[in-house]
């Protein structure tokens, strides 16, 4: 009896612990999904899933369109035959023939223009659907969720349009989450690197000297201010001087305070952020104008700016290499420039989010200073 | 502006006494304050787009010449191919339909590939003059600063590209400021409206007193509003542009999400020329539609953020309570078991 009960109890606790483990695992999994690595994987997985969806939806339409073009051409050939036949029965006048042929060709041109607008790419082979290859569909899904929207390829079927709307509505918040998360992490790590390396926080001698210099400068400024104030206005001194005076009683105290400030409180100047952005755009432009034969440096940097600001006109798109025609699947996936382009976009957006994150405080501080200056100039006493 | 004001004020100081200077200062202050209100910001954004439109028109109109060269080229292609067709007709004059159609098919295929190549280089069927009319340029400027970027009309000269980059650099922060501000204002209006409706529809009971200070608009209201706006836009754009309903819904959704795929753009219809009178008004109306719609999106974003924040807080509280509850229950369970066990011993 006793043993039985103990066994049951043990089993019960075992089951409970198993349940708990499961729950714990689930919780950890969800936490991981919303952590930094998880969200990158989530965005990548979402994009890959989207590219497969769009490939299956849009792939068929392409072939239908090509068949239509071919059919139209045979119809026009038949018409031309009819014209020739008609004119041949009468007298063969060159002007008349030319006029009717010109009319027909004009019609045909209009038709071809229309087909091209609808996505005809000018090749005749029915086997390959070049635009909606895996690479193309992947870039399409990426441009939808990042709201770049190049528009060089777009869905033509009604199902594709509905899928795009739904895909965007779910994908955009996900991408925003990615941006805020990754931007935050990158900002923190960049601040750390900046503080450790650029300001030489890691070697104490330099930091000490820097802190000393800063304190000295502050003191001088304060003395200047005091003398200025005493020169101009006597009543103000009695108010402002006592709280300002004993703030740093000794130099060493101030030094320790200065050295103890958290790395995360080190302000990164706006110019550094701007330099990072400009440098990122320029390096991207250099790489792209190496990759694409016809692009000048100007074109490539224009492309990078338009992409990273999510405007995305789509007049310049890294094209010929990415939308490879009719090669096998894996060669396309592993195409270096396609991978590079998508990584460039994802990383660049996170970088811009980071820069905004870093600049925010500084810019707010600057604006406040400006407002104060303007107020002082306008002498607003309200 | 500030320097102008200072110059003004110094001049007035010289001419008269203190009074006018203070007045000018006041005036300046009120103007600056007004500029940062919603209406002022809207006017600022509107003015910025108008200035941009005029600038881009002047920058890009020399391109019309370039476009006409493409037109000439396509005409020459047509002429050459028709001559070739004539030759084919002369050669195959023996009523052999099969051979004739094969030869003609070849000629037509080469012509087709030429046309496709020209289109890829930027030839537009309808743009026989300048595509950069004023409303089109206005639409272009709006699409740049709102980051929609349709891409149906793009700068082709180097200066145009540089100008676009600079224009975007200044325009985007301005637009974002406007977006945040208008979102706030519209959210306030909508909340007030919703509260009024809510109070009218429900019985005025004692609950109304402490509900009064803060009513949270449910997100379903925002969703319904957005869907209504989308459908209204779709219903207006559909018949105009001869799009079917799904296409116009797709256009409105992708525009308001700022994706801007650019396969459907109002006024860029292939069949009608872009310079006709009706298209201009359509462009202006679509400009207003998108301008206002983005403000609505900002409003919904604002309201939904509030509501979702509240919901998350509630859910967290619920979760905490639930955890506490289960903890207490588990503890009770343990105690009971232990009691039973001890009894056994």
From TrEMBL, chain A:
Signal peptide start and end residues: none
Pfam families tied to this protein: Ion_trans_2
Predominant subcellular localization, coarse grouping: membrane
Key words of the record: Ion channel, Ion transport, Membrane, Transmembrane, Transmembrane helix, Transport
Record-annotated membrane-spanning stretches: 29-57, 130-150, 162-180, 268-288, 300-317, 337-359
Potassium channel domain sequence ranges: 129-187, 276-362
SUPFAM superfamilies: Voltage-gated potassium channels
Localization per Swiss-Prot or TrEMBL: Membrane
Keyword flag Membrane: yes
Membrane topology: Multi-pass membrane protein
Cellular component terms (Gene Ontology): plasma membrane
GO biological process per UniProt: stabilization of membrane potential
GO molecular function terms listed in the Swiss-Prot or TrEMBL record: outward rectifier potassium channel activity; potassium ion leak channel activity
Entry's family note: Belongs to the two pore domain potassium channel (TC 1.A.1.8) family.
PANTHER family noted in UniProt: BCDNA.GH04802-RELATED, POTASSIUM CHANNEL, SUBFAMILY K
Protein name: Potassium channel domain-containing protein
Species of the source: Phyllotreta striolata
TrEMBL record, chain B:
Chain spans, region Disordered: 1-21
GO MF annotation, one: potassium ion leak channel activity
Subcellular location: Membrane
Keywords from the UniProt entry: Ion channel, Ion transport, Membrane, Potassium, Potassium channel, Potassium transport, Transmembrane, Transmembrane helix, Transport
Entries under InterPro entries matching the protein: 2pore_dom_K_chnl, 2pore_dom_K_chnl_TASK, K_chnl_dom
Main location: membrane
Alphabetized PANTHER family for the sequence: POTASSIUM CHANNEL DOMAIN-CONTAINING PROTEIN, POTASSIUM CHANNEL, SUBFAMILY K
Protein's name according to its UniProt entry: Potassium channel domain-containing protein
Record lineage: Eukaryota, Metazoa, Ecdysozoa, Arthropoda, Hexapoda
């Amino acid at each position: 009896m006793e043993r039985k009960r103990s066994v049951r109890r043990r089993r019960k606790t075992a089951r409970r612990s198993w349940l708990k483990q499961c729950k714990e695992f689930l919780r950890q999994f969800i936490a991981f999904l919303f952590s930094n690595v998880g969200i990158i994987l989530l965005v990548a997985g979402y994009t890959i899933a989207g590219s497969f969806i769009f490939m299956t939806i849009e792939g068929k339409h392409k072939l239908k369109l090509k068949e239509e073009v071919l059919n139209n051409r045979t119809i026009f050939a038949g018409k031309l035959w009819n014209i020739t036949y008609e004119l041949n029965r009468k007298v063969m006048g060159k002007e008349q023939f030319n006029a009717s042929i010109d009319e027909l060709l004009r019609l045909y041109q209009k038709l071809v223009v229309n087909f091209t607008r609808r996505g005809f790419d000018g090749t005749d082979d029915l086997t390959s659907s070049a635009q909606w290859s895996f690479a193309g569909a992947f870039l399409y899904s990426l441009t939808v969720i990042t709201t770049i929207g190049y528009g060089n390829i777009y869905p033509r079927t009604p199902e594709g349009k509905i899928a795009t709307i739904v895909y965007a509505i779910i994908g955009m918040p996900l991408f925003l989450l990615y941006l805020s998360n990754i931007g935050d992490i990158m900002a923190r790590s960049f601040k750390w690197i900046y503080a450790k390396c650029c300001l030489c926080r890691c070697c104490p001698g330099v930091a000490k000297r820097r802190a000393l210099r800063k304190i000295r400068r502050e003191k001088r400024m304060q003395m200047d201010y005091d003398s200025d104030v005493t020169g101009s206005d006597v009543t103000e001194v009695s108010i402002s001087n006592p709280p300002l005076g004993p703030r740093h009683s000794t130099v060493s105290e101030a030094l320790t305070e200065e050295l103890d400030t958290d790395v995360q409180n080190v302000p990164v100047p706006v110019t550094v952020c701007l330099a990072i952005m400009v440098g990122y755009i320029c390096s991207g432009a250099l790489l792209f104008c190496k990759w694409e034969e016809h692009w000048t440096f100007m074109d490539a940097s224009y492309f990078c700016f338009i992409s990273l600001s999510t405007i995305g006109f789509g007049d310049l798109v890294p094209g010929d290499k990415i939308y490879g025609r009719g090669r096998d699947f894996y060669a396309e996936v592993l195409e270096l420039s396609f991978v590079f382009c998508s990584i460039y976009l994802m990383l660049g957006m996170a970088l811009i989010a980071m820069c905004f994150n870093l600049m925010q405080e500084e810019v707010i501080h600057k604006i406040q200073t400006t407002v104060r200056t303007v107020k002082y100039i306008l002498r607003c006493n309200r | 502006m500030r320097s102008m004001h200072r110059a003004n004020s110094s001049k007035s100081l010289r001419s008269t006494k203190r009074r006018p200077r203070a007045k000018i200062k006041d005036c300046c202050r009120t103007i600056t304050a007004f500029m940062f209100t919603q209406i002022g910001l809207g006017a600022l954004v509107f003015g910025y787009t108008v200035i941009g439109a005029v600038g881009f028109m002047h920058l890009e109109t020399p391109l019309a010449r370039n476009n006409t060269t493409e037109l000439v080229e396509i005409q020459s292609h047509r002429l050459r191919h028709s001559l070739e067709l004539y030759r084919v007709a002369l050669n195959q004059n023996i009523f052999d339909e099969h051979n004739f159609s094969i030869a003609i098919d070849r000629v037509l295929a080469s012509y087709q590939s030429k046309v496709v190549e020209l289109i890829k280089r930027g030839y537009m069927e309808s743009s026989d003059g300048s595509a950069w009319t004023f409303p089109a340029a206005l639409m272009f400027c709006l699409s740049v600063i709102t980051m929609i970027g349709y891409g149906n009309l793009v700068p082709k000269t180097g200066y145009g590209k540089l100008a676009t980059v600079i224009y975007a650099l200044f325009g985007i922060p301005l637009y974002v400021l406007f977006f945040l501000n208008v979102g706030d204002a519209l959210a306030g209006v909508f909340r007030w409206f919703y509260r009024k409706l809510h109070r009218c529809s429900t019985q005025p009971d004692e609950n109304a007193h402490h509900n009064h200070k803060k009513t949270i608009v449910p997100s379903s209201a925002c969703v319904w509003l957005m869907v209504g706006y989308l459908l209204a836009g779709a219903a207006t754009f559909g018949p105009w542009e001869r799009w079917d309903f799904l296409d116009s819904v797709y256009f409105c959704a992708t525009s308001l999400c700022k994706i801007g795929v650019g396969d459907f753009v109002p006024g860029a219809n292939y069949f009608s020329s872009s310079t006709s009178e009706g298209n201009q008004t359509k462009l202006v109306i679509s400009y207003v539609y998108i301008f206002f719609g983005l403000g609505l999106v900002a409003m919904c974003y604002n309201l939904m953020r509030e509501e979702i924040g509240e919901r998350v807080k509630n859910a967290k509280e619920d979760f905490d309570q639930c955890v506490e509850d289960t903890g207490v229950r588990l503890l009770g369970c343990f105690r009971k078991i232990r009691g039973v066990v001890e009894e056994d011993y």
